[in-house]
Design brief:
The chain is 27% helix and 25% strand. The chain is of the alpha+beta class. The strands form five sheets. The chain has a seven-stranded mixed beta sheet with strand order 1-2-3-15-7-17-4. The protein has a three-stranded antiparallel beta sheet with strand order 14-8-16. Helix 4 crosses helix 7.
Length: 324
């Protein structure tokens, strides 16, 4: 097995001369160690099956969901693909929303440990996945900023991020696909396995405790922009069929990039849940949960007004072509 750090980056490594489909117990500790050290690992030419993706992910912990094919076209009963999924569908809205920097499942009671993607079919242009190093971003902050954010917490909600980023709002008088919970998490996170501090922010974060709405937006935006401002802290992966990539949701941001949506982009995706002792916020039945609901409800009042000029303009999704 060869583990080669990515040149001119603060994070990331390429792993070769190993078969993830036939990974042995003796080989895995080196991969886990490299994962914690580098934050994300690229395994070229693996061509992992759905079962292989699941087995590899289970080595890291309990799954949020099993490995499954994920594509921008409708899958037929025979396994082939037909028409492109409509742009106005909720499924594609999720795709467009994930073109903003985020970390997975921070809006759940237990946030994610890591995500794994394996490329099956890729478009001719675009469709990269980009990663940003929140460890190096935190380390590079000036001491005054570190002191300011040391004990600050932000709420995380997919309901507000969909509304803010896309104008994708739940109906006023109908059932929403988004839950009404907002989970409080520290802005400065200590990685549970390395002990290294990093920022924990992204599109799902809002409502910093103790700050006004304007101050909260300014702080979270400035921290995100600072992380991605240095090219050494950002890596863009140009997919090739057969690639498998695993990344640490506890310390990295990531985002999808636009592509030619008329072409098939097919991946196998699986997500590993975080360890409950370190990634658990609270259950909806916890008395602390009400403060999150109240903060989210207040935020949605502003977002309903601000969403009027965004793509989905509230409760309906007009035909729209995603920007390239």
């Amino acid at each position: 097995m060869q583990i080669t750090p990515i040149e001119d980056k603060t994070f990331g490594a390429v792993v070769t001369d190993v078969s993830l489909e036939n990974l042995t117990d003796a080989e895995f500790p080196d991969i886990r160690s490299a994962f914690n050290q580098y934050g994300f690992l690229v395994f070229p030419g693996q061509f992992l099956s759905v079962e292989g993706n699941t087995a590899f992910a289970e080595r890291f912990g309990k799954l949020h969901y099993d490995a499954h094919p994920m594509a921008n076209k409708e899958r037929k009963e025979d396994g082939s693909y037909g028409d492109t999924v409509p742009y106005q569908s909720q499924r594609m809205r999720g795709v467009f929303g994930n073109q903003n920097w985020h970390t997975d499942s921070s809006y759940m009671p237990i946030s994610s440990k890591c995500g794994i993607l394996s490329a099956v079919t890729v478009p001719e242009w675009g469709g990269e996945t980009e990663f940003a190093d929140m460890r190096a971003g935190y380390a590079a902050l000036d001491q005054a900023t570190k002191d300011r954010i040391e004990n600050l917490y932000a709420y995380h909600s997919t309901k507000q991020s969909a509304a803010r980023d896309l104008g994708d709002l739940p109906p006023e008088d109908g059932k929403s696909i988004f839950h009404d919970e907002a989970y409080l998490r520290p802005i400065v996170k200590v990685h549970p396995e390395t002990g290294i501090k990093n920022l924990f922010i992204g599109r799902h974060a809002f409502g910093v405790q103790g700050l006004s709405r304007e101050e909260s937006i300014e702080l979270l935006t400035s921290l995100r922009d600072f992380v991605v401002s240095d090219p050494s802290r950002v890596y863009s992966h140009r997919w090739q069929p057969g690639d498998t990539v695993i990344w640490d949701n506890r310390s990295l941001l990531h985002r999808a990039r636009p592509y030619d949506y008329s072409q098939l982009r097919e991946f196998i995706a699986v997500r590993v849940a975080g360890d409950p002792e370190t990634e658990f916020a609270y259950e909806p039945t916890d008395p602390r949960a009400q403060a999150g609901r109240d903060t989210l409800e207040a935020e949605m009042v502003f977002l309903r007004e601000e969403a009027k000029n965004k793509r989905y303009k509230g409760t309906s999704a007009p035909e729209a072509r995603p920007t390239a």
